[in-house]
Amino acid sequence: MRNKIILSFAAAGVLLLSSSCATLTTKSTQEISFKGVPGTQLKDVDKNVPLGFVGDNGFATVNLKKQLKGKRVEASREGYTSQNFMLDTKIRGRFWWNILLGIIPIAIDAATGQMMVYDKDVLDVTLQKDTNTPAQPEPVVAVKPQPQPQPTGQVVNRNTPGNTDMEKAVIRWYIDSEPRGARISWRVISNDPAEVKNTNETYMTTTPLEETRSLNILGLTYENSNNVTIEVKIEKRGYETQVKRYNVRMALDQQEISSFFELVPKVVKNYRNSRNATSSSSKSSKKK
């Protein structure tokens, strides 16, 4: 009989501790979403602290600390009538189990405020426009003037240049070679010659080249830059000519064109020795 009484008290203690632990491990905050006009400011009226503002998607999500009583939230926005909204609370379902187990779980829940939860996860804080306040003009956003489109069928060339900002885009050029002293020339290759003209080779300087300079590609825009290629050619006497091409869109994004050329010596055939060797072989054949 005595053992049964001890086991009964032990079981009750386990239930009491498990309930209290469940209470203590429950989150002390609750995630609440506020739905309203974008730009609406939210404030905790009781604590006089800001809670955030409604984003462009029309919602604001805030983690609010649980408490015994409800919370008053003020919503305000310029041009709208400010309004207080009530976020009520209700008793959490687990609290009724704590009543059956005694005063300790109840005291824990009451002290931490976790015996209550907010009665809704989404609170509508949509405001009405203030008819007494004159409507505020919408802020004027400075719009960068866009280049005028070229007339259909007109070829952009040096005689009819375009009016785009990208024509004079400035980027860093870095071209080097081994050995140095190689001639650098470049030209424009366009897949859309109606807007951007193909050009002939233009001599720049000898390697190494490191400077900041304008592209000066007439008719170039960011939209058509993906169809334009810059070809860089390296030439040096006694070495093979090398050519590399660069997409202008990538050059604009990276703000540079850079490359290193490892020059390869030309293989010069000795035609005199080759002719003598051929002649000798012919004579040998005749003697045989």
Report on this model:
- α1 runs parallel beside α3 and α2 packs antiparallel against α3 (103-112).
- This protein is 23% helix and 32% strand.
- The strands form 5 sheets. A 4-stranded antiparallel β-sheet has the order 3-2-5-6, with no helix packed on it. A 4-stranded antiparallel β-sheet has the order 12-11-14-15.
- It is α+β, with helices and mostly antiparallel strands and 288 residues long.
- The protein has helices at residues 2-25, 95-101, 103-112, 248-254, 271-287, and strands spanning 29-35, 41-44, 49-53, 59-65, 71-76, 83-87, 89-91, 116-118, 122-124, 170-178, 183-190, 202-206, 209-214, 228-235, 242-247, 256-262.
- Mean pLDDT is 76; it is low at 14-25 and 151-159.
Strand order of the largest sheet: 3-2-5-6
- The value of Rg in angstroms is 40 Å
Helix/strand/pairing class, anyone? alpha+beta
Number of helices: 5
Percent in strands: 25-35%
Ends apart, CA distance between termini? 131 Å
Largest sheet: 4 strands, antiparallel
Unreliably modeled segments: 14-25, 151-159
- The CATH architecture of the largest domain is Sandwich
